[in-house]
């Protein structure tokens, strides 16, 4: 009778250990799924400045504290792609490499506008290998453009006029905004 009791206790302890391991595995999978979940479909940005309107001249700050002017004239024919991101945004982390790719392929100047604490933004830049990309901070531009969801992309022409604006979640969304801007530059 005693051996039956000892065996049942060993089996019970083993079942509890297995159950704990299963709970940890499920918790990890939930975290992975949370990172991968993104809003489905194109989302519209709130109002604010619309395509065709020029942004005001605002001096933003780089992560190093250097001044970075926005709304200033660029080289003729240049297009600046602003991407509003945050370090705790899983969709932003997925869209960033896509935006880098599209900007490089189309000859656009990519500027990342960070929302969050500067140390977290610096860690994000370093972790994602964004050393060659302009990364600015400041809430002024987000307020002027009424950026309420991330990641939001805004394309500006050489004069600081908004060519296209929208929330981007996938490559298709990013690439849909770029031809709209190209048509306005040619016009």
TrEMBL record:
Spans through the membrane: 6-27, 128-147
UniProt entry keywords in alphabetical sequence: Membrane, Transmembrane, Transmembrane helix
Keyword Transmembrane part of the UniProt annotation: yes
InterPro entries: Thioredoxin-like_fold, Thioredoxin-like_sf, Thioredoxin_domain
Domain Thioredoxin: 49-186
Pfam family membership, one: Thioredoxin_8
Cited PROSITE patterns: THIOREDOXIN_2 (PS51352)
The keyword Membrane belongs to this UniProt entry's keyword annotation: yes
Job of this protein: May be required for disulfide bond formation in some proteins.
This protein's name: Alkyl hydroperoxide reductase
């Amino acid at each position: 009778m005693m051996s039956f009791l000892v065996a049942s206790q060993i089996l019970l302890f083993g079942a509890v250990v297995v159950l704990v391991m299963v709970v940890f595995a499920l918790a990890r999978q939930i975290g992975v799924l949370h990172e991968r979940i993104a809003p489905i479909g194109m989302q519209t940005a709130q109002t604010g400045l619309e395509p065709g309107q020029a942004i005001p001249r605002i001096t933003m700050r780089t992560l190093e504290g250097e001044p970075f002017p926005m709304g200033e004239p660029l080289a003729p024919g240049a297009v600046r792609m602003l991407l509003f991101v945050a370090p705790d945004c899983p969709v932003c982390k997925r869209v960033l490499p896509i935006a880098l790719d599209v900007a490089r392929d189309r000859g656009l100047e990519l500027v990342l506008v960070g929302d969050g604490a500067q140390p977290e933004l610096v860690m994000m830049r370093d972790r994602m290998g964004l050393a060659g990309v302009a990364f600015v901070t400041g809430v002024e531009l987000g307020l002027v453009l009424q950026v309420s969801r991330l990641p939001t992309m805004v394309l500006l022409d050489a004069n600081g006029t908004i060519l296209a604006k929208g929330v981007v979640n996938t490559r298709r969304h990013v690439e849909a905004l770029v031809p709209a801007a190209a048509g306005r530059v040619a016009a």
